[in-house]
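Homework help thread (please don't just give me the answer)

Our assignment gives two proteins as sequence + structure token strings and asks us to describe the second one. The first is just a warm-up. Here they are:
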Amino acid sequence: MIRLIATDLDGTLLQPGGVLSDRTRAALNAVDADVVIVTARPPRFVQNLELTGTAICANGALIYDLAEQEVTHAQTVPFDVVRKVAEALAEVIPNVTIAVETGLETLSGPGFKGFGPNNPHRTLELLDHVFEEAHQVVQMLAWAPDGECDPMMEIAREAVGQHVTVTHSGGTGMLEICPPGVSKAATLESLCSTRGIGSHEVIAFGDMPNDLSVLGWAGTAYAMGNAHPIVKQACSNHAPPNTEDGVAQVLEQLFRL
């Protein structure tokens, strides 16, 4: 019996361009189960999807009530750790630049160009100014113009993995860095515990390495047809790609919609 659906957004639930299709929306509204969005995105990117329920944002650092549009729980990276991690990454990743997500906005140091026009950030003159202006840090972002995510992730984990959680969701040259011990799965497990839901009652969907923790924890896990190779390898179940409303197709079959 499936009591909760945990799904990533980009490359999973959403079609290219961040579009939630009518078919997928209808499937989510029809299922007799809780729906929890589990994403690397901050809350402001999920507000306009017109979904209800709960979103786990910033790779597990934030829990967001979609109906009330408020953060109900936040886990942060201590500022001394933020500085230590930024300094360590600068030594091992050429031309790396740093941004921080506060939960309300993204602040970056000079040279950070990892975002497209639909994902704005505020650039400050010095990285020190970023650290001074951020009221809290729920996620760090490290971007290198010539970087490849998989090798960057391994280098970063070796350098700072004892201080933070490092992952990526496929952005070119972009790493996502969370508070120590924080992951999508850890926060989802805690949320499910408060609702009396076991992992065997959860179905999860994802496409990128930052989804692996959730896909490994859930009783039933689907890698999208467009997923990263290591995600496909980790899951015995494969859904059609997000461009074909893969999540909706699986839910329609399982819930006989």
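The one we have to describe:
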Amino acid sequence: MNICMIGVGRMGRRHISAARAAGFHLAGVFDQSPDAIATTLVECAVDRSTVFDRAEEMLRAVRPSAVVVATTAPSHCRYVCAAAAAGVPYILCEKPMACSLEECDHMIATCDAAGVKLAINHQMRFMEQYTDVKNLTNSPEFGGLRSMVVTASNFGLAMNASHYFEAFRYLTAEPLAEISAWFDPANVPNPRGAQYIDRSGQVRGVTASGVRLLIELGGDLGHGIEVVYACRNGQILVDELAGYVRGIHRRAEYRELPTTRYGMPADEFQRQIAQADVIGPTVALWRSLLAGGSYPDGSSGRHAVAALVAANLSGESGGRPIELERGLPRERIFAWA
């Protein structure tokens, strides 16, 4: 199965590794940056004959079965739509899906009209740190997820918090209904370039049924990602970078007592899980996509972008709650990378 890569920066090179692990043949590579191409030729042992000067030329010449769009977000819409127009059956686009809701809608409509399967690389549903937690939180021992609290380093609202919007939707099987955000007064320079802006601060989201998502991504935080999943009967702590899980829950005979009885005798466990990884879950995404299974599609990517739009609007207005299904600006373009 031939695959082409549009964008071979750091993430694009990881996608090359994932594609090869999935059994694809790398048939074409494009990037506007000569430095990115030079690095890819050496780091990924790519044959120079597969390098093209223009993405559209590559799509016409190779006619691939699959394409990865791993450029920065401002060009996602252009390249996804070009691949769909070229008749590529499977497209995997990096997140955030686009820089506006209008672009998301155009990408979805273009792929639907062409009969193309579009996936967005929110690969959390294939990561043990989420699949394991979903099973635990839904178990009688823990009694259902009520809040997810992410304490992280300064990993960017669009760059990484968008992953948690999708992870939360996967874990709760509910979309976010409302977002509030409080931004740090100063922006930390974006490592992908001065033209990109990705805010830091705090975010609170809630579903229609009242399950909460809280993300601490302050600009003065420089290491680690830990998540606490609070349930009716217990809590689960996951250190995502270290691959560590600790769970504690009420013993069965105390589960029906009121929540105010928070200090009842409990059972506890600790164990290791797979550390946060990009390549393995992306391989799993490809396999599920090709097999007709569950994968993060365009609507999943659009939901994450809608949450980003709402968070930005809230942060700009000092934390005012913003509803995701009412009045979000479709045309406004944000400076995400």
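TA reply:
I won't write it for you, but here's a hint about the kind of observation we're looking for: The chain has nine helices and 14 strands.
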